[in-house]
Known about the structure:
Blueprint: E1 14-20, H1 27-42, E2 46-52, E3 66-70, E4 74-76, E5 82-84, H2 91-109, E6 113-117, H3 128-137, E7 141-147, H4 153-163, H5 165-171, E8 175-179, H6 187-190, H7 195-199, E9 201-203, E10 229-234, H8 242-254, E11 259-264, H9 271-281, E12 287-290, H10 296-301, E13 305-308, H11 312-320, E14 325-327, H12 336-346, E15 351-352, H13 360-372, H14 388-414
Parallel strand pairs: 1-2, 1-6, 2-3, 6-7, 7-8, 8-9, 10-11, 10-13, 11-12, 13-14, 14-15
Antiparallel strand pairs: 4-5
Helix pairs in contact: 1-14, 2-3, 8-9, 8-13
Amino acid sequence: MDASGRPSDAGTPIRIAFYSHDSYGLGHLRRSLRLTESIAEAGVPAEMLLVSGSPRAHFYEAPEGVQIVAIPPVTKNAAGEYVSRQEGISLEDTVRSRKRMIRESILRFQPDLLIVDHSPTGLRGELLPLLADLRQQGRTEIALGMRDVLDEPSHVVASWKRDGTYRLLDSLYDHLWVYGCREVFPLDELYRFSETATSKLTYLGYLNRLRGTETSIDMAAAFPDPGKAHLVCLVGGGGDGYPLARAFLQVLAMRPDIYNGTLVTGPFLSREKRNRLASRYGHLRNTQMIRFTSHIEDLLRSASLVVTMGGYNAVMEAMAFRKPTVVVPRVFPRKEQWLRATSFERLGLLRCLDPDDLGPDLLGDALRESLSEPLPPDLEGVGLRLDGCQNFVRKVEEIRRRVSCSRKVDADASEPSPAAAPRGAARIRA
């Protein structure tokens, strides 16, 4: 690669398949799309396939040439258990269909590299037949991409022992990539990686969520009085975002004199709950509610402060803009968001509130205090590297060059030897 981080020659395109099991939210899908964008932006010759379990996979614009295969979606019920999103279809039948579609689409694509997001075995083990096929064929390198923190160490260790994940990491995966920094979350230590797995592990750094150039869209200009502080509330996909959304709107209703606010409810907030919020707070002149926006960067750029749950993408976006940030993380069915938020709070990057104590008074106090404090420190100044996308692209380019060399060797080996050519015949190389 040259000094700008772009490939120094065109060369052979690499075929990359992404698997994103996404069910309850949008985080895995958005992370996978960001990685496809990084490859396209860097000019790496590539053909890409994204297999996603998100029912909103086509909400987002993928780079040109990226094929998207949407597999039957699942969600989680109130007990945190997976269920089919399709009424009348059992989870077992849904997983069976997903397993078949994943295997067929990726084997047909014949990837040089498969990147699995977060879940080493896939949803309910749906990746296992495919991983075995790819390992037997021997032409595909397999990488597991992990966010900075997965869950409480005791929970992850018990789950991985039960599911056989440790054996899988040792035997089937070629690369283990962490989209974070070991100084913040030492995954190899926390989750007891074996020596073999640790030798495959690379901390790439956090994925910078900012893309392209700034636009001129001022999302705060929609309010009758745009001079007030503009608060932006993000609740991820929205499936469990109602308590935070309601508390945020209650604060706006209590202080229309000093706040304007934009709530992004997410596409998975139920229609009943969305209508409930709209009927009670939709008349407020200092409030706008959006279900989904593809202009999230413009929205955050215009924000005076960000309120969010503690998902990887939302936190990194708020941090990248150095906005005062109040996080109310999810704590069930896993503690990933809580662990991230409390760790970042110790670094002075945000304020974390316990969701069990959430209410308009507590949230209102946190907003007022956060707005009065100095801006959060620079991320790299507290040890958070934001070069994850660049390092990811370098890894992909290394694999592409290796694949290209391997193909050349195979092509040369398949050519007839000079002794086999007829006497006097000229051998011409393409």
